[in-house]
Design a protein that fits this description.
Blueprint lengths: L1 E2 L6 E2 L1 H14 L4 E3 L7 H12 L6 H22 L1 H6 L4 H4 L1 H12 L4 H12 L8 H4 L3 H21 L15 H4 L22 E3 L6 H17 L18 H4 L3 H5 L4 H5 L2 H7 L1
Antiparallel strand pairs: 1-2, 3-4
Helix pairs in contact: 1-2, 1-9, 2-3, 2-6, 2-9, 3-6, 6-7, 6-9, 7-9
């Protein structure tokens, strides 16, 4: 079995990836890649770690696999046009993540070119992650990273045993880019490949909440420090939110001003501003 991080338990690799990805994403203190609006770390590392326990993978191959997983996941996110992808109700970390997880696992398990293509094809039929959790602050978002890691490992294992997946899963008539976005740009998938690698464009959140709240919270904290403000001195806070993030952290107004659950609070800009 593979390690479930933070415990003494071991599980089948795909279930270890599920547990590790879910726990890594649960506090919203993950990494972020701005252009794809995705959190690669919480998908790619759980999948790579789980797959590595099935092979004699060394450090060099592990690093190559992680970098490749980041490339696949984030480039697909960029190509989808995240705002359009969100408008369809999808979460890029879940939908794009499964492809990155499959790519990373395929490298670690030393799949050949045909097998890797099959793994990505299989992964495409498991690309999921609904933003409907925003409606009632449910926990399903935590699973998006875990399921993407789990399904990526499964895709690679199936492909290693000869299971076939569609070679045109990305760009095909019914493929990922056409099915999951109204404004995708397939050219972005390979544009400027490795110049630089996408993993170098990621950062780690400082606040345990949605990425669209990070900048405004930093701005508020900066103003507080600069002017030594006290809470009782603040009458009103006016913020600007990125267009793609507005429906996520500012709508509907009644819910965002009255969060009922932890998830509600993590995705409420008014709450984040008040706490800051």
């Amino acid at each position: 079995g593979a390690a479930v991080i933070g415990t003494d338990m071991r599980a089948a690799p795909q279930y270890a990836a599920l547990a590790n990805g879910t726990s890594a994403h649960s506090l919203e203190l993950d990494d972020l890649h701005n252009e794809s609006s995705a959190h690669p770390e919480v998908v790619i590392f759980p999948a790579a770690l789980a797959a590595s326990e099935l092979s004699d993978c060394g450090g060099k191959r592990f690093i190559e696999a992680v970098i490749a997983g980041y490339e696949v996941m984030t480039r697909l996110g960029k190509a989808l046009n995240p705002a359009n992808h969100y408008a369809r109700g999808f979460h890029p970390t879940g939908t794009c993540g499964v492809f990155g997880a499959a790519a990373a696992a395929s490298i670690i398990l030393e799949l050949d070119q045909e097998q890797t293509i099959n793994a990505l094809g299989i992964a495409g039929s498991q690309a999921a992650g609904s933003m409907e959790f925003l409606t009632d602050g449910s926990w399903s978002k935590r699973l998006h990273a875990g399921w993407a890691a789990h399904n990526g490992v499964i895709a690679a294992l199936l492909a290693a045993r000869g299971f076939k997946g569609p070679a045109t899963i990305i760009e095909g008539r019914f493929g990922f880019l056409h099915s999951y976005s109204d404004g995708s740009d397939p050219d972005k998938v390979l544009a400027d490949l490795g110049k630089p690698f996408e993993i170098t464009k990621t950062s780690i959140k400082l606040h345990a909440c949605c990425r669209y709240k990070q900048g405004p919270i930093d701005g508020i904290l900066s103003i507080i420090r600069k002017h030594n403000l006290k809470p009782e001195e603040v009458k009103q806070v006016t913020l600007g939110i990125l267009k793609a993030g507005f429906p996520i952290v500012a709508e509907p107004k009644e819910l965002k001003y009255n969060p009922k659950t932890l998830v509600d609070a993590q995705f409420s800009m008014p709450f984040g501003a008040a706490v800051a």
